[in-house]
Design goal:
Blueprint: E1 2-6, E2 12-16, H1 60-85, H2 87-98, H3 102-110, E3 119-123, E4 126-132, E5 143-149
Length: 151
């Protein structure tokens, strides 16, 4: 980090590093009224150190989220394999989505045998599948969104 300093003679000086040692922008020594620091240090930045305390680590929710995400990933993987390997399935799914036949798209997705049915939305150039953990779960731990393009 470099800063441009103009000294008393009007010469420009570039100082590399130590940004906290440069005079503050808009500094006026006549208006400076800091009695906490010696006059030699009043016009310079001082480094500020922030210390944070973190709460105790409890991995239980994290582990629970990972287990629920495994189910979502398995369902998403099953659906993606079906889309990637079956040209007929992909063609029919794209055609139904482009014609905004939401019931047909959801029926086709259910026919793959997945346990969690994703929320489906589509645009003219792609399909978006949003998998969520349990609908009854009060604390939403995890979700997965797949966006597939066909244009």
């Amino acid at each position: 980090m470099r800063a441009l300093i103009i000294n008393r003679k009007g010469q420009n000086r570039m100082y590399p590093y130590y940004y906290f040692r440069y005079p503050k922008p808009g500094y006026n020594p006549q208006l400076q009224n800091c009695w906490n620091y010696p006059h030699a240090y009043q016009s310079y930045y001082h480094p500020v150190h922030f210390y944070r305390t973190f709460p105790a680590v409890n991995p239980q929710l994290f582990m629970s989220s990972a287990k629920k995400m495994e189910v979502l990933m398995r369902d998403a993987s099953t659906l993606l394999v079906k889309m990637a390997e079956s040209k007929k399935f992909s063609y029919e799914l794209m055609a139904a989505a482009q014609q905004s036949k939401k019931d047909a798209v959801e029926k086709m997705i259910k026919s793959t045998g997945i346990s969690r049915i994703p929320a489906v939305s589509y645009t003219p150039d792609g399909l978006s599948l949003h998998f969520e953990s349990d609908k009854e779960d009060t604390q939403k731990c995890c979700d997965l969104t797949l966006k597939l393009r066909w244009m």
